[in-house]
## 1
Amino acid sequence: MCILKWGKIEVSQEKMLKVLTELGLKKTEAKIYFYLSKRGPKQAHEIMKALNMKKQQLYPSIKSLQNKAIIKSPLDRPARFSAIPFENVLDLFARAKMEEAKMIRRNKEKILSDWESINLPPLKRSSVFLNVIKGRKYVYSKIQQMIQETTSQFSAISDLSDLIRSEQFGVLDTIQSHPKKSVIKFRIITEAPKHYLKAIKKLSKSISPQLELKALNTNVGSSLVPRMVIRDNNEILYFVTERKGELKEQNEYNCLFTNYTTIVKPLSNVFEELWQNSSDVRQKIREIETGIFPKKTLIIKDSAEAQAKYNEVLKTAKKEILIVTSADRLKDFQKTLPEIRVLNSQNLSIRILSPITKENLKVANKLLSHSQVRHIPQGYLDTIIIDNDHLFQFSDPTSIMNGVETEQNFKITFYTDNPEYVIKAKNMLENIWRNSSDISRNSIESVFDPLHSFSLPPKSTSNCTSSEVLCDYLKSKPVVSRTIHGEVTEKEVVAKIIDLHQSEDSSSKVVKCYCKIGYAAINPPSQFDLPKMLIVITQIDKKSSFGAEDRLVFHIWQKTKEGFRYIPVAIIGDNPNFPVEILEKGQFNDTPAATNFQLVRREEIQFQLYGNTFLAHWTIPITLSKKITLPPGTVILEAYGEVKTKRVHLHYPTGARYDIFYNAFDSFVTYMHESSKYTGPGTDGLFLRDAFIEIFLP
Amino acid sequence: MALAKSLQSTFFFFALKEEAFKLSLKRVIEKLETLGLSNGDAMLYIYLAKNGPKKARNLSEELGITKQQLYARLKKLQEKKIITKNSQVPSIFCAVAFERVLDLLVSIKAEQSEAILETKKELLSKWRAVDWRNNKRP
């Protein structure tokens, strides 16, 4: 509006018309007013003729001028329109404009609320697109354009070389000149390799203060980082050129530019996740300069990420790997064997702690060639410690160790390199390692048949040292014939026992016995100063031929002419009615045990069965040989796995015959010595929950 | 029956909303027109203010008007000082906040009113000096 300048302009009809339009009249209205003002009252047709106007043009303008009270029409017909003096028009407009200003000021809130309620429906933009942009120049100008068009957030992942170059080309200056820069989130993730410290410092100083620049924590799978630019989560520029890693080598730029939600959204999420795993670039610079990196403790919920982290840390392993795993998961180590072989060949010490069961014994034995494997009781959390520096704990380590996706939802991995945690956890595991036991190379069943056959293949006896007593009774085999009948069913065994309870057998030649029997092979650690032992716990039911009895038979591992054997050396029992001749004629014929039977008081020997746990406790010292006395102790058998049902027939040289039916379970063995505790693998124990024995004496 | 009623009321609500929106838009446009803008100019300002800064190319694509038409309007809005453009190539146009536009409007109206009164004498003398002549071509 330039009314003030009018005074200096040349006077003409055109200029006066302009004055009128600037006062607020439309062009036609201005012409009509000017004509009427200068030529006096006129009829409509005269006006139309003079101004070369049509009726349709004239009447709306006349009406508008009348509404503004600028022209008047008397009541006489035909109507003659007359204009009010120009002076009045000026006063009218001056007042009107002042009124308008006041009105706007008064109604400002209302007008603003009108403004707020205007939500323009989104205009149809060109539909989804997917373009390829080639060449640095074009890519940079696209990025600039994206920055300019950003309304809420601009996110980018770029390697350092690209970022520095784009800064040099002024791409990032666009941020500084963005009119809405103060309300927009500009975020860039880059990398901060040590050898480019100078470049990073320079860059961090030159970028716009509006830009948040973070550097990726390099040990979080940095090599997988995609390069991309995302605008408002609507458009993405995705770099498809392979990265060559070095600052100077990257000249080719090939990008995909798209607004497909299915591409933009997941990649926006990738950005957000990486943003969380990145540190402010200034902090990163400080870390590089001081060499002090913050220790990390992470909860990784994604199995692939956990796998990547594990693989990455594994590559850095220099000295040792200590693994605690469960019995089931040890079986899966079969798939990891080649990897363990490679690690072992790199002079890495690999130690594995796991409950050893009959099911995983085979794998454990294979692992022994490349690592140390020891048995621990069940219930330890799966843990891996690498070089005293890294600790992993898994809720589902199967997927980590084998790179296999499982369907379990719980794939949470705890990771830390905080020395405080790692060292403490390591000490704890070292303690467990010291108290753990070597695994037996064979399961107890292959060492002996229940109730007999103490033979063992000579090749697996190399680690046995006990040889002080040589028993010559083993020159002849104690069992002359052994028949293992076809599998009987669990029910048949139980039926036999029910039979026993119902019938009284008068024949004194047949001894019937219903019992629970536990076999615990114990390989005590050196501090126990005890030989390798086998303890047989027999709890005989009161319905048996000679009534109830709790009996313990102790065997020690000795060298014989036919190799190492478990030799029965001592028996303790609490049944005064038990005829000792059965021991002499039967299974203990010609063994040291036959003459080392000790009758004890009921309270001196106690057996308990809780669910699948069978416990035997003796309170007196047991003489195993002239030199060896076993102190009071406890043996616990924890049964696991599936029931095994068998029938065995034994025939002794004395003519005695044993017919045995049983339901049995493999068991973990725990031996409580007076000074310490020993835990044996699940292959060292056998628990005959239901055993029915018929002894036919000669 | 209940469903039909609820649908009716829903449609009625939308109709109301639509009507209210139109009224608000109309009132805002009227205000902008008092600045001496056309309806189209006012709409362009509203579009730019509601959608954020844009380049001319995007505006012409989105509004479906030619660049020539667009530039004429943009120029007018710039003259009225209710949009700005930056110095980059290509330029980005950005609308002045509507609240500022209202303030601008108030001050312009007041200024105009004062200007009219101040220059009244001079204008009157010039007005008297000019007579009507027919510019109609034969």
## 2
Amino acid sequence: MRKLVLFGLATLVAWFAADSARGADLRIPSSGVAAGRPLTIGTDGQGDAVISLLGPGQVIQRKVKLGSEVQIKAEDLHSAGRWIAILRASGESHSRVFWVEPAQPENLSFLARPSRVPVAQHNAISGTVFLFDRFQNLVLRPTPVTFDLSVKGTGAKQSVGSRNGIAWIEASSGPKEGAAQFVASVGNFSVRRVVQQVAAEPCSGSLRMHITRREKDTVVVQTDPIRDCSGNLVPDGSIVSFIETDQKGKSTVDARIKKGFAQAELPASDNAAISVASGVTLGNELHLGGGR
Amino acid sequence: MNRLLAILFGVLTLALVALGRVHEGVGGSNSTPDGAVQALFAGVKAHDLKGSYSLVSPSSNVDFQTFERSLVGSNGSLRTYSQLESADTRVLHENDSEALVRTELKYATAVGALYDIQDLKVVKDATGWKVNWTAQKQPSVPPQVIPVNFLRWDVIWRGAEDDWGAQNVEGPHIRILSMNYTEREGGVIIMGEVENEDTVPAFVSVGATLVGKNGEDIDEESSFDKVSHVLLPKEVSPYRVDFPHVRLADVKSVRMKPDTSLVPASADPVIGVLHQRIEKDARGRTVLTGELINESGQSVNIPHVLATFYDNNGRVIWVSDGYLDQALLPQTPQPFAVDLRDDLAANVHDYRVTVNHYIRNRQE
């Protein structure tokens, strides 16, 4: 008789536990779950349970009374991607997979190449933007990105949509030298890079020199402003070689362009030829003395 | 007897000490012209410049400070960092009262041996032969202010706080314009020219690897000081990479490895190279000579001349270099000479000289 009562009690407990477990379940919104937004997860059943949320690089765990709702605060949910919610009650587990979308783009990683480029080069500049939200989740949904490339107030603006979190353009360098401001923006957020547009080689015919000063032992020769074929002054520091040849030999001065001009001091001579060159561009020739 | 021996040894000791002092002081006898020159330079070698100065003829009209400066250098020049290693003398001409002695001096420096040839006039007076010392007179530049508004490049690098997308400043683009090779004195020499084709200054080094017949690396060397390391925009420098003890017949190919990085730099000073010509020096060797002139207002402590020689096809056939042991003072010409291989002299159609400079305590 005693055995029968014990068997009956055990059966009752098992039935009660099985009934409780059968009631435990999860309710997660199928859309609209985003990083940085609060999340409400509903549960069914009775009794105590533990709910674990496993996401990319993040785990959230809460104790819950079955039948109530679990509130995940906005600041606690910051990883976008595939999540698994596991509800564990009375030794049994129930799980649901759900997706967390990235928040609004608030960070742009902007790669602008190259940092220096000659003027008037077709598609020589590339700009690539990676869109991130404030939790550094890559924002995969298509988002319009505006690229603005300008030098000294003139330039071009272009808007492209992102794909898989990336937006990019190719742009030609402008005709004017200078520090081009290359700005990528999404909404109110923008990132600026500087692409230095530099003058090209001196234009054939623009390299001309003249004598500016004669002293007892020296002559000073100076070039006219040296420009590339777009009319830009050739960058400062570029080498201009002055070569004087007379009966004493050859004298050379490798001068640097400053503000478009190059200047050199050469020995005075009563019969010498002076030539000037910059890179592959040859300039005019002067003759000292000799009646010319 | 014992006392006599003690006195004898005492006298002998004193005599040897005295003899030693004499040798230490002047390093030889001034009873002959080349002996006087040898004695003078032995004193220099032993840092006994007072002793050496005692062998300078009073008729030279050179004070001790000038004499000292001409031997040990000044203004942080390479000579101030050198040590006289040897002095070889040869009497070119001699009579009873004067002689001409050719002296080949070899100085040891951190950048290798420096050679100097001097034809010294030696005159005889009552105390023996003495050297008529001619100190090189430094033309004094009148006091003045030289306005130098030189260019300078500074670089703002990517900071640690910048996001990963913020690009760093791009390194300069350089290009090897030409490459040639030769075999000489049991080694292989690779030479050519490299250009900074960018608009920013570049720190450049040129390395080369010799690849053997079976594709294995035989040797790897760099141009070390036979290149201008800092190249300003559009500047061209020669380079030369020496592989001693490698036979050209063992080499299948060469792998060039130019390295570059962006550096802050300044365009000052501008150094002119005047009156360049190829001629024979006192030893009969072919040299490229000329004068350097520092057109800025700052002294260059150690000038370094690099010469590129071309054949009539414009091909680089030799690269030579040489350090000047005198500082390059503003507006003051300084002669230079760099070697040219005698066997190549006939093939040289053109040449180009560039100048490296080392300035002590420079604030870039």
